[in-house]
């Protein structure tokens, strides 16, 4: 009987040893599984943080895209928070979060493509704008050059249209209408010159003005209010005459009567139109 008890005790002990072995195996295996799940959770958390950083680095000048990116960043932050709060042993939830991570990563790739397309378009627009600016600058330069050339040509035409004079002479005239250089006999001066041919000059009446300076260099005139303007400058004239100029060469003679005795010395006589000086000549009176 006692021997049977011993056998039972030995059998129970063997069973206990086996059960203990099984328990130890289950415990070790469970810890191994938990360790593996913890590693998976840590890896998922690291991927979430990486995705969060990737979203943070995305930027664009497009307001609509920026608003959408803000929403996606918030989704990533919320998902990361849920992953951190979830036990490593809750494999179902972690698998769900992993799928959500994949979705968010796919969405991010779509935004990257959009931003790249916008950047490419912006670069193309900047290049086009730079080229347009360059062309506008070149066009402006060409316009300014053409304008300058046109103005120069206009000035040349304007200068070319000015009537010129040649062959100016001055003589003294006595009371009989004869030429003389005796100051005591002279009653007036006669100045003659030719208006040269100019086909582009304006046709029609043209005033020719005479300025006579005595030996003392003072302008001689019977009326100091006799004024004309040449090249923007006002001048007093001694005598004047209107000429019908039709583009062909024409001789013009103007008489100047002073009303006082002419004195001995050199007289300087100049002829003008309102555009320019026609010529000058000196007369020595004895």
Which key terms come to mind for this protein?
four-stranded antiparallel beta sheet, 286 residues, alpha+beta, 26% strand, single chain, 52% helix, five-stranded antiparallel beta sheet
* DSSP helix fraction: 40-55%
Sheet-strand content, in percent, reads 25-35%
Radius of gyration: 57 Å
Topology as H/E string? Answer: HHHEEEEEEEEEEE
Q: So how many helices?
A: 3
The termini sit apart by 187 Å
Condensed summary:
With 286 residues, the chain is an alpha+beta fold. The chain has helices at residues 2-57, 63-85, 91-160, and strands spanning 165-174, 179-180, 186-195, 204-213, 219-220, 227-230, 233-236, 239-245, 250-256, 265-272, 277-285.
How does this model look, in words?
This protein has 286 residues and is of the alpha+beta class. The strands form three sheets. Strands 4, 5, 8, 10 and 11 form a five-stranded antiparallel β-sheet that branches. Helix 1 packs parallel to helix 3 and helix 2 runs antiparallel to helix 3. The longest helix is centred in the middle third of the chain and has 70 residues. The radius of gyration is 57 Å and the shape is rod-shaped. The termini are far apart. The relative contact order is 0.09. About 3% of the residues have low confidence.
């Amino acid at each position: 009987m006692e021997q049977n008890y011993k056998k039972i005790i030995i059998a129970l002990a063997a069973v206990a040893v086996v059960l203990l072995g099984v328990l130890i195996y289950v415990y070790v295996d469970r810890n191994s599984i938990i360790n593996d799940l913890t590693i998976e959770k840590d890896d998922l958390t690291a991927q979430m943080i990486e995705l969060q950083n990737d979203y943070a680095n995305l930027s664009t000048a497009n307001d609509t895209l920026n608003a959408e990116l803000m929403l996606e960043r918030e989704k990533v932050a919320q998902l990361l928070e849920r992953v951190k709060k979830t036990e490593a042993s809750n494999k179902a939830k972690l698998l769900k979060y992993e799928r959500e991570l994949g979705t968010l990563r796919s969405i991010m790739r779509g935004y990257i493509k959009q931003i790249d397309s916008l950047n490419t378009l912006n670069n193309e627009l900047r290049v086009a704008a730079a080229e347009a600016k360059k062309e506008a600058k070149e066009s402006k330069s060409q316009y300014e050059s053409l304008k300058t050339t046109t103005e120069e040509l206009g000035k040349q035409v304007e200068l070319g249209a000015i009537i010129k004079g040649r062959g100016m002479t001055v003589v003294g005239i006595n009371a009989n209408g004869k030429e003389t250089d005796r100051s005591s006999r002279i009653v007036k001066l006669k100045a003659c010159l030719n208006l040269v041919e100019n086909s582009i000059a304006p046709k029609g009446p043209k005033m020719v003005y005479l300025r006579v300076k005595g030996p003392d260099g003072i302008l001689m005139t019977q009326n100091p209010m006799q004024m004309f303007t040449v090249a923007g400058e006002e001048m007093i004239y001694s005598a004047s005459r209107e000429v019908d100029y039709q583009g062909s060469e024409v001789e013009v003679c103007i008489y100047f009567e002073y009303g006082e005795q002419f004195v001995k010395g050199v007289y300087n006589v100049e002829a003008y139109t309102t555009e320019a000086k026609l010529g000058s000549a000196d007369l020595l009176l004895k």
